[in-house]
Specification:
heterodimer; A: six-stranded mixed β-barrel; elongated; B: alpha/beta; six-stranded mixed sheet
Chain lengths: 552, 250
């Protein structure tokens, strides 16, 4: 019982263990934050990769695509393991929006089928409400929504409706970051007023012959009406992808079914009544697996179907069948390795906490040597003394680890706000400088009050408070003088952006705490603290009580 | 030198009812060496003494004569190179380590010259230390009230009923020593081992402490006290001199 009493007393009354608990707290928080952010990043990546590519994809290895996909799709759809499949044609191309030409990845899709397999519908940004609101129209007064305003319906057909039909151009849905005028505001939101909806764009692609040479007619292009913008959350996709109707892109690329007169190979003359048919081609078929089947089962079934499909020379590797995991393996594994490496590095750093605890406890044992002798004289056993210091280490570990968990949770949950603040607000502004001034003044008064009984402390508190007050005053003067240029420069100098979506793909930092991992980290931190206290505890237990009593 | 024989054979577990036998402690041929600075210091050279129940024995000697060493050996804090300390029929140095700790906790109460109170604890908590060591964490709730009542009574008895919540740093030297005496008595030990209990106190406070010890003795407490002050030793039933490692009559 004396152990618990002393542990509680030592915890409250000693500065050393507080520092040890602080070290444990910071290390715990650090590892939990890293694991949560990196793990969250990995989860986001995996979820997005799966949602944006379907379970399994049957992909042409050549940019010219593969033929007889319709027949192949019939066979794939007939599989028990498959619930849906849709063709997708894709190519690199350009989009011109209001004079800006941007390189993009153009995907030709059948929106309804595509949306059943890949996340598409819920990535659409704008709806009729936005456009009505923008035009100042009350939906109740309007009655039925004009077809050209029903952005979601048009996006799901990729066909302009209503008055937009007059443009005689197909519809296009663009990634929100493809639009050069679109940007996120201070709250991280996009504004419909900056959107490209209803604008006319020009899509340009380079059709290739079956042999991969540029088609004779050169690049083909079409005007298109922007029907909506989408935001997948993956920055890389949002800044480079546009969707058009499958048949539109297929035609632009010359991949549609075509018939031409047949020519005699010997004479080169057309053969009357005979035609040569070029089958339609696609770049890819995306497949959704049926429930109850694992990804591997779906993959195996589709792969077998492709390999046994006699119209396509699959044996010659014209078509690749890959799961979403295989397709993104390189990138996901890189992030996995990065997570592992970063975690390892932080765990190495966390050994500092163990050393800190060991040092603190060693000092405590030295400081408490005589008390240890007293306790032995009153009847405490060697095991009891060891238990006292191990229990002390445990208590420091529990307090530090739980505080670390609390710190990590509050940081991770507010990581985006913190990063936003660091990136945008950390600078000279009247508000903050006055706050700093006030804080410094309060600090000086409190410091003076605390240090009242100790002259040195009083002087120090007053001087520190005064210095901070003057610093704050100078800051306030800079802001109030509205020296904008200087303010901006200062802002640039002391602000930084932790999370740049251009580097990290996602527009937000993952802010979910990995509680399962956190549990083991907390456990590890407590254990580390006990390990740190182990050697001092053994030393304390082995102290000769007579020597300990004589210790000065 | 008087030697008493041991009549009791009780174990060293729970204190239980006090033995009615005449002698409590028997110290036989006790030798203790120290190796300091490469030199062998033979501090105790065959000490023999028997302490009866309720007896107050004062051991006198100059500084460095080995008085404290003798007290530490009797209390089982140290081990001799030779000889035995027999308590209620059993040689404490032949007991396993845990039993010696138990012996110190239940049968012996130490009072030191420098008080040796734990600075983080209040006077009451310091007194309770021995009782807390005696009890397991699970057994403590059942014993706490009783132990607390005993500790409060002891503090009242030593005249510190109103200073129970004070930490040692807020107490005077005499008050600290009284807390230390109360701590030594909390488990109702068979023998009180006092090492220069007035050594750090002024004459007046020393007198108060001595009158407290005398009062305890009158109530039947066995006391072994070491001191260099002959005047203080006057109150004891028996005075022995420790000279050149051996005990003898003055």
């Amino acid at each position: 019982m004396y152990k618990l009493t002393l542990i509680l007393k030592y915890l409250r009354r000693k500065l050393g263990p507080m520092f040890a608990a602080l070290a444990v707290m910071l290390c715990t928080a650090m590892v939990i934050i890293v694991i949560s952010v990196m793990g969250g990043f990995l989860d986001l990546l995996q979820t997005s990769a799966k949602q944006l590519t379907g379970d399994v994809s049957v992909q042409a290895r050549s940019m010219t695509g593969f033929a007889y996909y319709e027949e192949l799709m019939v066979e794939i759809k007939a599989l028990d393991e498959v619930v849906a499949a849709t063709p997708v044609v894709s190519t690199f191309g350009m989009i011109n929006l209001d004079g800006h030409t941007i390189g993009v990845n153009i995907m030709g899709i059948q929106p309804e089928e595509f949306s059943g397999i890949v996340r598409y519908r819920d990535t659409l940004m704008w709806s009729a409400d936005d456009i009505l609101d923008y035009n100042g129209i009350d939906p109740d007064e309007l009655g039925a929504t004009p077809p050209a305003f029903d952005l979601e319906a048009m996006s799901m057909t990729l066909e302009p409706a209503g008055f937009l039909k007059g443009h005689d151009a197909p519809g296009v849905v663009i990634g929100v970051e493809v639009n050069p005028y679109q940007y996120r505001d201070e709250q991280g939101q996009y504004d419909f007023r900056n959107s490209a909806v209803h604008q006319t764009a020009t899509l340009t692609v380079l059709p290739l012959t079956e042999r991969g040479a540029p088609a004779e007619l050169g690049p083909s292009y079409t005007n298109a009406v922007v029907l909506n913008e989408f935001k997948s959350g993956l920055y890389e996709i949002d800044r480079s992808q546009v969707f058009v109707r499958f048949d539109v892109l297929q035609k632009l690329l010359g991949m549609e079914r075509s018939e031409s007169p047949a020519f005699d190979e010997q004479t080169g003359e057309p053969i009357p009544g005979k035609t040569s048919v070029k089958p339609a081609r696609t770049s890819e078929i995306v497949v959704k697996g049926a429930e109850g089947y694992t990804l591997e089962q779906v993959y195996a079934a589709v792969k077998y179907t492709v390999l046994t499909f006699d119209k396509v020379p699959a044996r010659h590797h014209a078509i690749a069948v890959r799961t979403w995991e295989q397709r993104h393996a390189q990138f996901i594994n890189a992030v996995k390795n990065e997570k592992g490496m970063v975690t390892f590095l932080f765990i190495i750093i966390s050994i500092v906490a163990v050393v800190m605890v060991a040092t603190t406890f060693y000092m405590t044992v030295l400081e408490k040597t005589r008390d240890i002798g007293v306790l032995r004289a009153v009847g405490a056993s060697q095991g009891g003394i060891m238990g006292l210091f191990l229990g002390y280490g445990l208590a420091v570990g529990v307090v530090g680890a739980l505080l670390g968990l609390a710190l990590a949770v509050s940081v991770v949950w507010h990581l985006n706000e913190i990063q936003y603040w660091l990136a945008n607000r950390l600078g000279v502004s009247a508000h903050y400088t006055w706050c700093a001034c006030g804080g410094a003044l309060v600090g000086a008064v409190v410091g003076a009050a605390v240090g009242f009984s100790k002259r040195k402390a009083l002087k120090f508190a007053l001087l520190a408070g005064l210095a901070l007050f003057l610093l704050g005053l100078a800051g306030a003067w800079v802001s109030l003088a509205q020296v904008e240029d200087l303010s901006f420069k200062l802002n640039d100098a002391i602000s930084f952006k932790m999370w740049d979506p251009q580097t990290y793909f996602f527009d937000r930092i993952p802010d979910k705490v990995k509680f399962y991992d956190a549990f083991f980290i907390v456990l590890g931190a407590i254990l580390s603290s006990v390990v740190g206290a182990l050697i001092p505890a053994v030393l304390a237990a082995r102290l000769d009580p007579v020597e300990a009593l004589r210790y000065e | 030198m008087t030697n008493h024989t041991i009549h009791t054979e009780s174990g060293l577990g729970d204190s239980g009812p006090k033995s009615q036998a005449a002698s409590l402690l028997s110290i036989t041929d006790l030798h203790k060496h120290y190796h300091i600075g490469g030199q062998d210091l033979h501090v105790l050279r065959g000490v023999d003494v028997t302490v009866a129940h309720g007896e107050w024995v004062a051991v006198l000697g100059s500084s460095g004569s080995g008085k404290s060493t003798l007290l530490h050996l009797i209390g089982g804090l140290d081990r001799p190179e030779q000889g035995s300390v027999t308590f209620e029929g059993r040689d404490i140095f032949k007991l396993p380590g845990a039993a010696i700790d138990r012996y110190r906790n239940r049968h012996v109460g130490f009072v030191f010259q420098s008080y040796h109170l734990l600075p983080e604890l209040t006077a009451l908590e310091n007194v309770l230390t021995g009782a807390m060591i005696r009890s397991s964490i699970l057994g403590w709730p059942g014993r706490r009230n009783e132990a607390r009542q005993r500790a409060v009574a002891l503090l009242d008895r030593v005249g510190l009923g109103d200073r129970m919540k004070h930490r040692p740093s807020k107490l005077s030297g005499g008050e600290r020593q009284r807390v230390a005496i109360a701590r030594a008595l909390v488990n109702e030990p068979d023998v009180l081992l006092a090492d220069e209990p007035t050594g750090n106190l002024d004459a007046e406070t020393g007198k108060q402490i001595m009158s407290l010890i005398t009062e305890l003795h009158q109530q039947g407490q066995t006391i072994v006290m070491v001191t260099h002050d002959q005047q203080i030793a006057e109150s004891a039933d028996r005075r022995l001199w420790l000279r050149e490692g051996s005990l003898g009559e003055p």
